[in-house]
């Protein structure tokens, strides 16, 4: 389900870092030795065996991140991102695997398109990539794609991300098909008649600025519908980019009744509120929109208590000229691969809203499990998927500092703390600064 | 007047002192409003703005606003140039950024812009060195309208502080309502918004006003400010109101609903017989023509103030504060 360039497997010793793997229950200053891409030893004062030695003193070594929600824009949007630029950006952000969304041009709705993407990833991807395929042909909500064939071809899951599956009957059929494919359905929950024309969260800020509101209930109503269908069909599902507190409580209640639902939340929804839209900066425009302070608090709580299993960037690159327009004319979406950890460390961990261990789990094992992937871990015998994090020095997010082809970041000009210094993905050093 | 806060400029090295703009009532302090409302005598000293260039760019149709800005500039002896979207490069798909850069190349002192999208004036301010005056951006702001309304109220009632203004009608789609609520609250007036629930935006009370869905709520007001039913913004089947007939029946401002001594205002253009009964519009209590006259004076004051009161040095904008 994950595809990347094959190639060398590296030898490496990382000395004296705080090794922090919440899944393995490790939190100690240790040396880690990687032999040909596999973790060979964990301990104190390890022999270098002639390997390259990286000084990890004062740094945190964690399982590398997994991003379950990336728009790589291929095919069709190569001016905004490519497999190479997107996976390089992910490597810089500390990721060892990413999942790409199928709302491309053409849509990934046939084995032919999926197959060619997989071939390209094998030739170009710097870190392993999985591709989700569409639930409906052309993502137009009318006919199911050939899900079994797409699963056989290697689809990592199914989604119409960017759009909801409007008809409940079609949603139900897709859930029934899960029994055949075994791959997750990932749902963009938006009731389109309630969100129509919506530019930002409906509330006091939209009332003052005059923007058409996109109310929370447009999301939570669809979340409740999809959870009801999943309960009825006893099928698992994954909820994309939750933004509203009502969605979190609906999910929590459904999980308590045994529905196998997972969910994700983005760094921007965890860090910002609709107050940020007062700047009228088009990089504050996302779907779902930034919501109220109460929503933000509930998203953080949901992530803390595990209701929300993972952080997803929803990395959505856009060409510069597309965002250099008045807010209402700008497309939805912001980039996030290169800034996710720094943003969350600075705005969520440092203020004491979430423990570092929890964040690391929700950025790595959480998303991997949500899609049935092997969680990265720091244990002898495991493939090396590691990120070495500097949580001390400050860095500034600059427009020309991105590896992504696009710079539509909500963090431009901000100073952050928390940055990956070294990333090892599938046994290979893919980022080294 | 405050300078605009463009986030990305917050971390650029400080350049020239920022140009002052009038993009939102939020750019103004109370003392700015008081100064603008009292400039009447001074702006009559002609030819105050000889040698300055004022460019009017209108992406939406307008009679009152465009004509009064043009006349205001001419009265002050400024050179003026008016551009309408229809027939310009906008028709050829030119972006607002490129239009702004093009106009900026002529070094205008002031760009007056009306645009259907919120935030267009900020964008123009970012790409030109001109002072930018917002003549209406989408449903967001129309600050000179609010200033001329304040001027009219002060002229008629002698004060603004403590005056009770009821704003009636389609608040949801109205930049006039938003600017007025903000301006009236800034000057210490009491504001009540009255209209059908779907046309009153959720959460608007936070701007410092009260909300009622009953037309009776206008009874206590000193001024009844009637908003236009913006039919062109009412998409087919949007169902904000079941019908204009029902709207007029329940919320139309009729002679029976106006008490003696109450003043009536309307930003124009009126839909006579819809939101306002013609008998109310033509009655002596209506200040509608006074508003138009005030528009000229106030726009002269705004241009004069921007061009003659030197730019106030302001520190570079703070980068965005994260919640």
Structural notes for this entry:
The complex is a heterodimer of chains A (433) and B (323). Chain A has 433 residues and is an alpha/beta fold. Chain A has a single domain (64-377, 396-416), classed as Metal-dependent hydrolases (TIM Barrel). In chain A, 30% of the residues lie in helices and 23% in strands. In chain A, the strands form three sheets. In chain A, strands 1, 2, 3, 4, 5, 16, 17 and 18 form an eight-stranded mixed β-sheet that branches. An eight-stranded parallel β-sheet of chain A has the order 6-7-8-9-10-13-14-15. Chain A has a two-stranded parallel sheet with strand order 11-12. Chain B is of the alpha/beta class and 323 residues long. Chain B has two domains: 7-141 and 294-308, Aspartate/ornithine carbamoyltransferase (Rossmann fold, 3-Layer(aba) Sandwich); 143-290, Rossmann fold. Chain B has helices at residues 30-37, 40-43, 64-75, 96-104, 120-127, 143-157, 175-186, 244-251, 278-281, 288-308, and strands at residues 53-58, 79-84, 110-115, 131-137, 164-168, 190-194, 210-212, 223-226, 263-265. Chain B is globular and about 55 Å long. Chains A and B meet through helix 6 of A and helix 5 and helix 7 of B.
User: Which structural class do you get from the secondary structure elements of chain A?
Assistant: alpha/beta
Give the CATH architecture of chain A: Alpha-Beta Barrel
Tertiary shape of chain B: globular
Instruction: Give unreliable regions of chain A as ranges.
Output: none
Tell me the name of the CATH homologous superfamily of chain A: Metal-dependent hydrolases
Helical residue percent band of chain B: 25-40%
Beta content of chain B comes to: 5-15%
Q: How many beta strands in the DSSP annotation of chain B? A: 9
CATH fold naming of chain A: TIM Barrel
Rg of chain A over CA atoms, rounded to whole Å, is 21 Å
> Could you give a short account of the major beta sheet of chain A?
8 strands, mixed
Provide the domain count of chain A.
Answer: 1
């Amino acid at each position: 389900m994950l595809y990347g360039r094959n190639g060398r497997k590296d030898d490496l010793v990382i000395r004296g870092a705080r090794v922090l793997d919440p899944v393995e229950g490790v939190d100690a200053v240790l040396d880690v030795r990687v032999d040909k891409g596999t973790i060979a030893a964990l301990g104190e004062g390890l022999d270098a065996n002639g390997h390259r030695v990286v000084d990890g003193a004062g740094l945190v070594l964690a399982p590398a991140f997994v991003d379950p929600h990336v728009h790589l824009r291929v095919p069709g949007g190569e001016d905004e991102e490519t497999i190479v630029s997107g996976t390089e950006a992910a490597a810089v952000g500390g990721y060892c695997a990413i999942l790409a969304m199928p709302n491309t041009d053409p849509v990934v709705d046939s084995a032919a398109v999926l197959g060619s993407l997989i071939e390209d990833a094998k030739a170009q991807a710097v870190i392993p990539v999985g591709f989700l395929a569409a639930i409906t042909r052309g993502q137009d909500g009318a006919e199911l794609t050939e899900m079994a064939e797409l699963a056989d071809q290697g689809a990592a899951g199914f989604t119409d991300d960017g759009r909801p599956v409007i008809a409940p009957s079609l949603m139900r059929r897709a859930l029934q098909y899960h029994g055949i494919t075994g791959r997750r359905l990932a749902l963009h929950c938006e009731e389109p008649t309630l969100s129509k024309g919506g530019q930002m969260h409906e509330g006091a800020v939209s009332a003052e600025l005059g923007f058409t509101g996109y109310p929370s209930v447009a999301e939570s109503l669809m979340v409740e519908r999809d959870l009801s269908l999943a309960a009825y069909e006893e099928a698992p599902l994954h909820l994309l980019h939750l933004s509203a507190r009502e969605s979190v409580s609906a999910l929590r209640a459904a999980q308590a009744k045994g529905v196998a639902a997972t969910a994700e939340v983005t760094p921007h929804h965890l860090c910002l509120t609709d107050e940020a839209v007062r700047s009228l900066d088009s990089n504050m425009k996302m779907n779902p929109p930034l919501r109220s302070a109460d929503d933000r608090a509930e998203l953080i709580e949901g992530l803390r208590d595990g209701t929300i299993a993972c952080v997803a960037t929803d990395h959505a690159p856009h060409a510069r000229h597309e965002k250099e327009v008045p807010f209402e004319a700008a497309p939805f979406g912001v980039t996030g691969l290169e800034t996710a950890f720094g943003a969350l460390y600075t705005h969520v961990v440092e203020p004491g809203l979430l423990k570092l261990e929890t964040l690391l789990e929700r950025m790595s094992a959480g998303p991997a499990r949500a899609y049935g992937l092997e969680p990265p871990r720091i244990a002898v015998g495991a493939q090396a998927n590691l990120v070495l994090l500097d949580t001390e020095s400050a860095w500034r997010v600059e427009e020309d500092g991105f590896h992504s082809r696009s710079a539509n970041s909500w963090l431009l000009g901000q100073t952050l703390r928390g940055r990956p210094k070294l990333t090892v993905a599938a046994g290979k050093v893919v980022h080294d600064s | 007047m405050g300078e605009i806060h463009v986030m990305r400029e917050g971390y650029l090295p400080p350049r020239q002192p920022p140009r002052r703009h009038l993009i939102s009532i939020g750019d103004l302090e109370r003392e700015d409003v008081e100064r603008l409302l009292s400039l009447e005598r001074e702006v009559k000293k002609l030819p105050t703005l000889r040698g300055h260039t004022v460019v009017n760019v209108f992406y939406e149709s307008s009679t009152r606003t465009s004509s009064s800005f043009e006349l205001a500039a001419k009265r002050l002896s400024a050179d003026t140039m008016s551009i309408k979207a229809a027939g310009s490069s906008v028709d050829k798909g030119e972006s607002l950024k490129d239009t702004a850069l093009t106009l900026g190349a002529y070094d205008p002192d002031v760009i007056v812009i009306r645009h259907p999208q919120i935030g267009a004036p900020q964008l123009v301010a970012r790409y030109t060195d001109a002072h930018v005056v917002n003549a209406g951006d989408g449903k967001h702001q129309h600050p000179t309208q609010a200033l001329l309304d304040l001027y009219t109220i002060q002229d008629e009632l002698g004060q603004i502080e403590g005056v009770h203004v009821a704003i009636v009608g389609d608040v949801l789609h109205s930049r006039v309502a938003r600017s007025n609520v903000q301006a009236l609250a800034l000057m210490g007036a009491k504001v009540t918004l009255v209209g059908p629930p779907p046309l009153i935006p959720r959460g608007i009370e936070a701007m410092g006003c009260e909300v009622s869905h009953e037309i009776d709520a206008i009874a206590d007001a000193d001024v009844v400010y009637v908003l236009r039913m913006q039919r062109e913004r009412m998409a087919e089947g949007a169902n904000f109101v079941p019908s204009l007939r029902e709207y007029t029946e329940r919320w139309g401002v009729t002679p029976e609903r106006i008490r003696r001594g109450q003043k009536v205002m309307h930003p124009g253009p009126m839909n006579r017989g819809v939101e306002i009964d013609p008998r109310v519009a033509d009655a002596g209590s209506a200040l509608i023509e006074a508003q138009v006259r005030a528009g000229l004076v106030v726009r002269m004051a705004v241009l004069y103030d921007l061009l003659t009161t030197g730019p106030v040095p302001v520190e570079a904008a703070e980068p965005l504060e994260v919640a």
